[in-house]
Amino acid sequence: MLNLFGQLSVARNYKRDMRNVFEKIQELEEIPGYSKHQQLVQGFINSIDEKILVRGDQLPSVNAMIKETGFARETIVKGYKELIERGIIESKNRMGYYISNTDTGQPVKIALLLYAFDSVQQTFYKAFRDALGPQIHIDVFFHHQNVELFETIINNITGKYGMYVVTPMPHPRTAEILKKLPINKFLMIDRFEAIDGDCSYVIQEFEESSYRVFVELLDTIRQFDEMVFFSRPNSDLPIEITKAFKRFVKDYKINYRINKEYLPGSVEKGKVYFMCNDMQTWILLKDCKEKGIKLGTEIGILSQDDDPVKEIICDGITTYSADFELMAQKAANFVLNHEKTQEVIPTVLKRRNSL
């Protein structure tokens, strides 16, 4: 009996609280220039600020809001959508809308899912952060090429953010996992994975751009005895780069090797080393320094992805890379303007001392 009375008390309190919320919305009718959409959003915000609504409270359904306020369905849906984008409420599939955050000063909340926090991702994040400005909150997650972790993160963030900016991973389950995100709030960055629906993306292209770079460097590569490429199975290296390398050495009859990783102390004169892992690149450069091997003449080094360190170290490492600052600016434009975008960031070869 006590449980029943307790449940009835909670129900009565909920009805009382929601009546207060509706009153907060109606109060805003007296403010000149306030649209019904603004009344709805600000009414909920005022209710949270005054502790009428607290985290975990369920909001009325769209139909219930139409009945209570007399607003059009489009107005209610638009209001709830803005509150979701600001990270104040979340939508739980088939369960309705709930208060998820009582920080009502937060205008938009972004979920950014990356591979790992390496130098390239740092460049992207800093430019993305700067382009969005301090008023936008970003929560950063990393999946490390682990599909179980990738799925867990997607499950945990879905419905809780205004925008989702995601670097996908190549896996048969990726498309199905990404279907959980609202496609109009989802931006695919860096790498492209085909999914159902016409999504927005700001990506780079790997196979044709890599092949083009190799051909552009052909005359220099031919000055060395062999081209050595380091590619570990099941790494996060795009398979398209390996395809481009194999096509290039076959088309132009280049002597080559593909090794899993660079072993410390194994540097040989007369080789062009194609490096896609920065940690292994630093080990190779250390070996060159210790053995007095001259870059650009006794060996060559080509590194995938550029960063400021590679411009300086050893008088410059030759790289090819997409412009990650430009990618970040394009991604920020999507978040700020909510406009569909589908762009491929150009790949640029930067020739320096090493090749």
UniProtKB/TrEMBL annotation:
This is DNA-binding transcriptional regulator, LacI/PurR family. PANTHER family: GNTR-FAMILY TRANSCRIPTIONAL REGULATOR (PTHR38445:SF10), HTH-TYPE TRANSCRIPTIONAL REPRESSOR YTRA (PTHR38445). GO terms for molecular function: DNA binding; DNA-binding transcription factor activity. Residues 34-102 form the HTH gntR-type domain. SUPFAM superfamilies: Periplasmic binding protein-like I (SSF53822), Winged helix' DNA-binding domain (SSF46785). Keywords: DNA-binding, Transcription, Transcription regulation. InterPro entries: Peripla_BP_I, Tscrpt_reg_HTH_GntR, WH-like_DNA-bd_sf, WH_DNA-bd_sf. The keyword Transcription applies.
